[in-house]
Amino acid sequence: MKQKLCLMTVLILLFNSGISHTKEPISNEVLIGNMQSAALKFMKSLGKTLQTAMSTNGPEAAIQVCETVAPNLANQLSKETGWKISRVSLKVRNPLIGTADLWEQQQLRQFSARVLSGEAGRNLEVIFVDSRSETNIVRYMKALPTAPICLTCHGSENDIPKEVAKTLNRLYPFDKAKGYKAGEIRGAISIQTRSQ
Ligand code: HEC
Q1: What is the CATH number of domain 27-194?
Q2: pTM flag (> 0.85)
Q3: Is 118 left (phi over 0), alpha (psi -120 to 50) or beta?
Q4: Which atom of ligand 1 lies closest to the CA of 176?
Q5: Separation CA 36–CA 19 (nearest Å)
Q6: Could you identify which of 138, 156, 161, 176 might form a hypothetical disulfide with 91, taking C-beta atoms 3.0 to 4.6 angstroms apart as the criterion?
Q7: What's the gap in Å between 141 CA and the centre of ligand 1?
Q8: Residue-wise pLDDT tens digits, 28-86
Q9: How far is the CA of 138 from the centre of ligand 1 (A)?
């Protein structure tokens, strides 16, 4: 009998440990916290890769980081999390993946207005939870301000080296992402999903 009880306890423990590993629904608060961390991870990882590429191989070679590494990183993060993650802007270089939807456009305008009234772009973020639908839609955006390093490819004619401008013109004939000044909102990281 004693042995049986002992076996049962072991089984219950095993069963419980199995349960604790199954995916439980998470609250919107936790979800939003996870989105904030993912956006930061995306920004940091891209910034680091860009900086290294710029200082090792020069800005022309670094174009590739924005052209391939950035979308790949967004795709990889989207796969890992199950969310839709992208970089959006009001003045896009790549209209296929960078075009903002209506809600994103409104938030980007708000971000720019807040920067004009003195707020620091790097602190700007917005959260939206649509609780009307059966399964909530949760959206998160983090502003991407134009840092001095961005001007090499997104600044005015004087900021962009000739060879870089040439390559950009060839790759992006409909490029609108030029003429930015340091501090202005260049775009945002946008994340959306349905919460469980
Ligand atoms: C070496 C050149 C280069 C530098 C430096 C650079 N970018 Fe870009 N950026 C690009 C290219 C090329 C694209 C288009 C990528 C694509 O094809 O999806 C792009 C796209 C973007 C997009 C996506 C929206 C769009 O316009 O298509 C954002 C947002 C962006 N860049 C922000 C920044 C920020 C912020 C910085 C500075 C931290 C920066 N970039 C620095 C070349 C650059």
Answers
A1: 3.30.450
A2: yes
A3: left
A4: 26
A5: 28
A6: 176
A7: 17
A8: 899 999 999 999 999 999 999 999 999 999 999 999 989 999 999 999 999 999 999 99
A9: 26
